[in-house]
Design brief:
This protein is α/β, with parallel strands linked by helices. It has a single domain, classed as Alpha/Beta hydrolase fold, catalytic domain (Rossmann fold, 3-Layer(aba) Sandwich), CATH 3.40.50.1820. It contains 9 helices and 9 strands. The protein has a 9-stranded mixed beta sheet, with helices on both faces. The protein is globular and about 45 Å long.
């Protein structure tokens, strides 16, 4: 299996991206704040919904969230999806439609926790909540779990994977795999793509992300593996799949993470999508690449549940 795969830009996607980029650039570099949460939630609420999934509010590990139920599921397995939003925005409810696409493709129910957000609840509150949910899922009798996450949620998903691999979380459940979409893996913001993709990225600037990280860490060490999974242990990790757009300033966060995972002997693969912006899968129904990436994640999750008993 190839560890690094580059997908060409479909001509139809290239045309569809033109107005999307034009609209996005008017807000490029804008601060992510408490006040902008409603706008972000409305954006994620706009993800194309599926007719074959249902939703259920629940609390796991004392963390409230949303269960996403596809038409068919298996009682002893589940996906834990950690939503994005730069650690300061996003909600379980707003993400239900995007997670519905993942759950339906995997044929497995998914729980989206509403973890605590910064700046009111800085690091490591979000980490603690995700770990609590994982323990709670185990306590409920779920024996096979896959973790997925996007952006800041991808960071938290990979932190969880490392904690499980290093036995920092002791449970009976098996973590069968992890899939991350455009994850933020290095909170020191040292990736070369911050400069190389500065113009290409329609959404983010390095300064903008530095402000987000500062709000989240509140003085904590960005090199802490619980903050930056790039600096964590890779030994014993489950299979990892990461999808990222080639036009992202966060490109190197994905590239370097997979390089280190492969060097450590982990079954890891990076899919780079030419011309795609941050978390492009949210544009399902508009971009062909979104459906293709979600299909790949669904196949990976299905195979992971079958392969790691």
């Amino acid at each position: 299996m190839e560890s690094f795969v580059v997908h060409p830009l479909d001509p139809q996607d290239a045309s569809a991206l033109i107005p999307m980029r034009a609209a996005a650039r008017t807000q490029k570099g804008a601060p992510w704040t408490i006040e902008s949460r409603k706008f972000y939630d409305a954006l994620m609420e706009g993800v194309l919904p599926r007719a074959d999934v249902t939703f259920e509010s629940a609390t796991i590990g004392d963390v409230s969230g949303v269960w996403v139920h596809p038409a068919s599921s298996r009682s002893d397995e589940a996906i834990l999806h950690v939503h994005g939003g730069g650690f300061v925005e996003g909600s379980a409810t707003a993400y239900r439609h995007l997670v519905g696409h993942i759950a339906a493709r995997a044929g497995t129910r998914a729980f989206v926790p509403g973890y605590r957000l910064a700046p009111e609840h800085p690091f490591p509150a979000a980490v603690d909540d995700v770990l609590a949910v994982y323990r709670g899922m185990d306590a409920s009798g779920i024996r096979r779990i896959a973790v997925t996450g996007d952006s800041a949620g991808g960071n938290l998903a990979l932190v969880l994977a490392s904690c499980v691999a290093t036995k920092a979380v002791l449970v009976k459940a098996i973590l069968v795999g992890a899939a991350a979409l455009s994850p933020l893996t290095d909170l020191t913001l040292s990736g070369a793509s911050y400069e190389a993709r500065a113009d290409a990225d329609p959404y983010f600037t390095k300064q903008q992300l530095a402000e987000v990280v500062s709000a989240y860490l509140r003085g904590a060490d960005a090199n802490d593996p619980l903050a930056s999974p790039l600096y964590g242990s890779f030994s014993g990790l489950p299979p990892i799949r990461i999808h990222v757009g080639d036009d992202e300033v966060l490109l190197d966060d994905s590239r370097r993470y997979v390089e280190r995972a492969v060097a450590a002997g982990v079954d890891a693969r990076l899919d780079v999508w030419t011309g795609m912006p941050h978390v492009f899968v949210a544009s399902i129904g508009t971009l062909k690449a979104s459906a293709l990436a979600l299909d790949a994640i669904g196949t990976f999750l299905t195979d992971s549940f079958k392969g790691r008993k």
